[in-house]
Known about the structure:
The protein has helices at residues 15-64, 68-74, 86-94, 97-128, 134-146, 149-162, 169-192, 197-205, 210-238, 242-247, 256-262, 271-291, 293-302.
Amino acid sequence: xxxxxxxxxxxxxxxxxxxxxxxxxxxxxxxxxxxxxxxxxxxxxxxxxxxxxxxxxxxxxxxxxxxxxxxxxxxxxxxxxxxxxxxxxxxxxxxxxxxxxxxxxxxxxxxxxxxxxxxxxxxxxxxxxxxxxxxxxxxxxxxxxxxxxxxxxxxxxxxxxxxxxxxxxxxxxxxxxxxxxxxxxxxxxxxxxxxxxxxxxxxxxxxxxxxxxxxxxxxxxxxxxxxxxxxxxxxxxxxxxxxxxxxxxxxxxxxxxxxxxxxxxxxxxxxxxxxxxxxxxxxxxxxxxxxxxxxxxxxxxxxxxx
Length: 306
């Protein structure tokens, strides 16, 4: 007696499915190559932009430590043949740098703090208080920020003379507190216009008055945005030149940017001394920016309302 078993049918691969698989793998490889090429292109562009941003600092540092003869003989791009502090010594002997630094720090610091506080108070009234004519007030504040300083300088100069603040750092402080606060009010009032009113109503039910709402509810939430404004106001005011040049006449009242402009003669220019002076004027803002970099990053990423 014999038994037979049926053989299992042999499955042959479908040629159409094999072709689809090869096409899909080929397409995935081409896509991977294209993505890798895009990443290298973005990296190359980032390197080019980074080199372009670092080039002015390279020129500033290398020329600040050269002698005048070395700069004339080898040009601005070459490294110093001999690193020297002669340019710094000439600059520090020609100006009262501690006084210039104190004036700049005083003006920029007071303007930054005063501008943020004034902007917060105004924005609280406009954004949450909903005062009548809010749109026109914000428009006027915005107009004040976009007007060129040349159009404002004559009434500002006459006003400073009338109140006896000509050639005083406080004239510049008052002017820039108002100008920076105008921009800050425009920005903060737009943010506070979207502030959740349920939170304010809950605090009012608990007995909070307007001052408590401002100091205990609104200000802590707005602190990241206010920190960003504080950093920007300090740096913007530090670099201001035109209004301080008109208002501050004597060297004792001047700021660092005005002293930099005074280094350029009518027909002569000491490039190495100017580079050394620019480097000294840059260092305080660089230190300030590094110290508050984390605050700036948190303010930008946190948003206005948590």
